[in-house]
Amino acid sequence: MLYTILRNREKYGKVTLLYGARTPKDLMFPAEYETWKKANIDLQVTVDRGDETWTGRVGVVPMWFYNLRPDARNTAVLTCGPEIMMRFVIYEALARRIPDERIYVSLERNMKCGQGSCGHCQIGPYFICKDGAVFPYSKLEKFFNVEEY
What we know:
Elements: H1 2-7, E1 15-21, H2 33-38, E2 41-47, E3 57-58, H3 61-66, E4 77-80, H4 83-95, E5 103-106, E6 122-123, E7 126-127, H5 128-131, E8 134-136, H6 137-140
């Protein structure tokens, strides 16, 4: 999605990217951060645990999302990562009255067959391997808090 936004930057207003990782060593794509910032992407990087060299934000993404005050009428939320983190991001988005059909989740459950036969990646009636991996939260709301086995 980020690369689609970058290729079509004129179609999008304010874009905020909250990007988190467990530690500074776990951060991906650091060489691209300046490119994203130059494209007027409000990049906010955080880590769960800093080390002696880390001078940036420390804390989980939902904590930083809590501090945002987006205009719910013009906001879409896209979230990926551990499901527990996404649950809290969704909670914060809904608390800001962002409609559930404009909240998107990218799921990564254990996939085995890749064709919807084995059921390992099933969430409700959907198979992540063939129906996803990106879904509007409105489709998953009643299934999202069911933990995988």
